[in-house]
Write a structure and sequence with these properties.
Blueprint (H helix, E strand, L loop, with lengths): L1 E2 L3 H18 L19 H5 L23 H5 L7 E2 L2 E2 L4 H11 L2 H14 L8 E4 L4 H7 L3 H13 L3 E2 L3 E3 L11 H7 L4 E3 L7 E9 L3 H13 L3 E9 L5
Parallel strand pairs: 2-9, 3-9, 4-8, 8-9
Antiparallel strand pairs: 1-5, 6-7
Amino acid sequence: MDFSVNPNLLEKVDGIRKMLAWSLLPPHCLLCDQPGMAAIDLCEACWRELPRNPVACPRCALPLSAPAMACASCIRREPPFQTSLAPLQYYAPISILVPRLKFHQDLAAGRLLAELFHRNTPAFDRPDALVPVPLHLTRLRKRGFDQALELAKMIAKHKAIPLRTDILLRSRNTAAQSYLDAGQRRRNLRNAFIADRRNLPRHIALLDDVMTTGTTVSECARVLLKAGVKRVDIWVIARVAMSV
């Protein structure tokens, strides 16, 4: 299904909707319950304390102490994706907001995370489509919620980029990655994704909530490139400060 958007119409409708919402219910900080800044549910104090990721590996977004062409891990094993955007690091309060969205279906937390991604991303090469990392149907039925899809919907609107949910599918239910080491993660995801070769964009941004080792997005990128996509970038809300 192609959720292409008209940027001009979308911006106008979304702007009207936000003005009405803010006039009826002024923003308040989801973290400390103080009054929020204009158009965002976060106060100025909490905004200043966000764990940003200003110096990172251009390939995998791993936080670095100084700018470099790539981190040691990406030099040792070049990832299949081209670049990564991860404007935040996975520390509090991001490590609090993501589980609220993922496990408690807290859409207010999701809206804030999408807004933080939008406001903190630097200039980027514009992709032809935004594709969320898919959740297997079994996991979706159990959880009742797909956090990557919900974030992708909101970020696609912010960035006025078409959202595509028909390109990448999860064909095999896998064990939770959080309990596995790097080698087990790679084996766990082998043949877990398939790509539809019809009507493929040339350049895709693959979106997930958090990147830890990069195993999931690497496997997704590999499948997409094999199907015929020319370039895959990774967009995540936050990056865990560990080597891939």
